[in-house]
Amino acid sequence: MKDIRIFESTSGGPSAYEPELTRRSFLRTGAAAVGGMAALAAALSPLRELTSDEIPDFDQFLQKHYKEMTPAEMELALERIRRKVEDRYAVRPHLRDLKPMEGVEFVYALNLSRCIGCRKCVHACVAENNQSRSPEIQYIRVIEMPRGTLDVEKGNHHYDRPEVPDANHFYLPVQCHQCANPPCVKVCPVEATWQEADGITVIDYDWCIGCRYCEAACPYWARRFNFAKPNLPKEQLNPNMSYLSNRPREKGVMEKCHFCLHRTREGRMPACVEICPTGARKFGNVLDPKSEVSEILRTKRVFVLKEEVGTLPRFFYYFDERYPNTLDPEALAIADRLKAEEGDAYGCLPGAAGPRKDFVAAAQPEWWNGGHA
Amino acid sequence: MDRISLESDEGLARLAHLHRFAQVGQCVNGVTHDINNLLGAAMAYAELAALDPNLSPETTRMMGQIVDGASLVVGPRRIAMTDPAHIAVNGEPQNCNGCHQIFKSGSPAGAALSFHQDVQLRHGLNDRCVNCHDPENRERLTLRDGTAVSFKETAQLCAQCHGTVYRDWQRGTHGKTLGSWVTGSAAQHRLNCNDCHNPHAPKYEPYVPLPGPNTLRMGNQAQDEHHDDGGKESPLQRWLKKPEHRTPGRLTVEGGHP
Amino acid sequence: MRTYLTFLYRCFRLSFVGDRRYYAWMFLLTVFVLLGINAYCKQLVHGLATTGMTDQVSWGFYIANFTFLVGMAAAAVMLVIPVYIYRNRELHDLVIFGELFAVAAIIMAMLFVTVDLGRPDRFHHLLLRFNFPVSMLTWDVLVLNGYLLLNLHICGYLIYCAYRRRTPSKVFYIPFVFVAIVWAVSIHTVTAFLYSGLGGRPFWNSAVVAPRFLASAFAAGPAFLILSLAVLDKFTSYRVSAKAFMTLRNTVAIALSISMFLLGSEAFTEFYTDSAHVASAKYLFFGLHGRSGLVPWIWTAIGLNLVAMLLLYLPISRKLPVLMVACVMLIVGIWIEKGMGMIVPAFIPTPLGEIVEYLPTMNETLVTLGIWAGGLLIYTILVRVTIPVLTGRLTHDQAFSAASRELPAGAALEKEAHA
Predict the structure, then answer these.
(1) Is B210 close to A123, i.e. CB distance below 8 A?
(2) Which of C49, C282, C354 is the closest to B217 by Cβ?
(3) pTM of this structure
(4) Rounded to whole angstroms, how far apart are CA atoms C374 and A176?
(5) ipTM of this predicted structure
(6) Fold exhibited by the domain A106-318
(7) Where along chain A do its domains lie?
(8) pLDDT tens column, B153-199
């Protein structure tokens, strides 16, 4: 060590061997070190705002990947999550780990002829799946599409009409397509997302590292990231939850539609299907030949969105053959002929076949008070 | 009310008294009901007659007075008729024939004037009450071949015109299934036509859409629709812009039959 | 072993020694590093909401810089290949600086990925369930770490040999050099595959992405080395030959030309086809539906690159100041083209056709600056330590002060001491 004994004097020039310089430079070095540490401490100070709630505890830190947990370990993890939910939302959740059912592969079908773009599914989904209300996370996007195209770029996500549907548009709801060849699963570096036996692509929210590669890979823009701590009012929490679906998420992890697996793996319908006022949404087991979705695949001209990306979605769209009677020239001609021949066959006043509203308005005598005695 | 003791004669007497009152009540009810029906029919005819443009103003005013007078009595009942809970039990309408024995045929215009004011018939070409309602028995529906069907079997009735939709509904590809996706499960139930569609105006009413996406950090992202084709107009968009194509309904037919 | 520890200790001490400009430079970098750490702590607390990223544009500034820096790291081969394959003498002594920069650049690149993570506390999940070989990100983790180790080994070995006054044994570094050449190409190729393998993003889904990345990297990397060598030449006792600069200049000019050619090919294919896939490119170059946030950036980049290319082909850039100006223009140009111009537009419009623009926030920019400052700090220290060793002023049999007195810009320091 002889050769470095004088390193204290390194800041000096030729007179570096002088003892008082050594002391001075020592003080200088010390001051610099103290200043540096203080600056570092100041730089780190925002970390004090982290709440204990957000810092993963030891058990959570050591928690294994979903597929590696034994039933006992899973029960411990579930209990830990239940406690956390209870602390945060003051509700004891009905949390369990639901496994795929045997002989079931879920498929979704959506009838574009029937969708009216009311966005009820979007909000039912948010209520069911405990998404963050602010910043807002929604799994379903309804796109208002002009006629003559399936190019989503021509659509409008933010349509804000007083009334839907608009005659010159159709509505294209998009959510996770639960692809059979999912690019999001392929790209995940830590296997935090995978496809289950029933076809649902799930995420282990306790395993995701938040790199957002899956979000970049998804051709349907179905994945969402918790950019901030999810904000969900206590009274809006849905306590019916499962490990892989709608349990409350943490900041910095991905989430996405999971076909409401906490409902569907118990035989129930997803929330979006239940809320749909027009029956445009169809859900079921494609391995069951009697199921509605099997029937749709058999009898309807179904198609998938962006087939060219080769993801083999389990989400099918279709249009009905639909030619409203009122637009059928032949039917209208027959009706006109019948009216001319039979006249007011059922005791109607002349002219009653015209637009009813106009007739009533035109026929109202002055004394008519609108029908209220 | 005190408990009536059947052990005592007094108790039995009180019971008999009560029974008598009940009988009288029912009788009065029946009489007023019939008067009501008669008045209602008279009123409805007067209303229809008032619409005839050939009548003199004098007669029209008289008809108006008949309507006004009758409605003093019939009014409360008319209001009651628009209350579905009052006229239907388990989805089956009750006591329709009281009126309709007198007032057999029905025009939607007439119905809209006095009774059934909640009924707005907007069912396309199907614009006669008796197309679906049995002219002889208003508590039933009727198929085109005259077969009477109950109000619980509306699907068959709809199927007469909407064959393809009925086929889809039978297969489960149209309509709504609730409860469970498991085929044949007890929890599963399918909705009927008129669970979703108002039979008098089957086309869905327009909805007010729920709010669109607007995450906090994005601000209001509402934007104009952008469906230009890079400066070039697609043939379809050009077609849509011609107003005559966009007018729905009969104009299209006239275009087809010059 | 003890000698090696002494060597490391001396290197550590040496990094705290320098003249005023050295201290000023290091102080400045430290300030930015601390600002960056502060900003990152805020990001840790409040989440990635502190960045300008959204679900629509889910990768931004961080990944853009990551991509650029992987390229910079890979560019070290542009010095290694001439020396070890074509026996170019001029560049022989400079190879080490290229590799040292590769080390710094790789560290920066890895830091950028780390700050981009939503859950850095779960980093160990990478070790527990590594989705290799399916996920390209796992490939990236492997090749980047491998490249870092290779370069650390080569640099460390050569420097330590110089310190011990030994001739490096070829067995211990030549094979690694050749592995590193292939490896350098692989790191940037894998990074390109990260993007080009995504069918859902047509803007990236192009075979020309990897060649484009390599070409632009081989322009920007040596350009950065020209700048840093020019600084060394001016401020330290280390001398760089004019011929070395000219060799690098040729490399940069050719790589830049290839890069511009590939950019042109890409643009032609996109715009002449004029299919629906052109949307992102249209947004980048001309704006889409009235949104044109990236248009000024990309045309600045193209302008800078074209002027730089022109300068590099003209004899005027034989003069070092002109060459340096061209290099600065080119680095900025490629940084924009590859970062903001390559990563961000792929997200605009989204796969569902929504147009949400992206702009980095202040916090995000501070983190970015912090990482850049940290990387430059590392590079400065590495160079600071290497020069006395390579010039034979810090060896195992010499007292430490000898090296410290012969500081970079020693003349300036001595003047100061006399005053």
Answers:
(1) yes
(2) C49
(3) 0.83
(4) 40
(5) 0.91
(6) Alpha-Beta Plaits (3.30.70)
(7) 58-96, 106-318, 325-363
(8) 888 888 888 888 888 898 888 999 999 999 988 899 889 888 888 88
